[in-house]
Amino acid sequence: MLVDPELLDNYIDIEVERLVQLALLCAQESPRKRPKMSEVVRMLEGDGLVEKWEEWQAGEVVRHEVERIHRKTMFEHDLFVIPKIFVL
Fold first, then answer.
1. pLDDT tens sequence across 14-40
2. CA–CA separation, 28 and 34 (whole Å)
């Protein structure tokens, strides 16, 4: 369960979704890609989260596609590697 049951449905779904999005932006692996605290405050106030989230999602789509192609390429390369046989 994502939302505290003690709230008894006393919350707005879209606000929970936005908080999760902001949390994910703040938890990126690279500190350089995380928003600054001033940006976090602005996003909590409703300014810029949508744009930042869409930018992050677009980057994630590209990153996943690059990783998928890399894995496929490495797999195909491994299939065609012919072991070297050393003759003494």
1. 999 999 999 999 999 899 999 999 999
2. 6
Lookup: tokens for 28: 């990126």
CA neighbor of 36 nearest in space, from 22, 50, 46: 22
Domain boundaries, the chain: 5-80
**Structure token pair of residue 56:** 């992050």
Rounded Cα distance, 19 and 2, in Å: 11
**CB environment 59-82: b (16+ within 10 A), e (fewer):** eeeeeeeeeeeeeeeeeeeeeeee
pTM of the predicted protein model: 0.65
Instruction: State the Cα angle at 68 between 28 and 29, rounded to 5°.
Output: 10
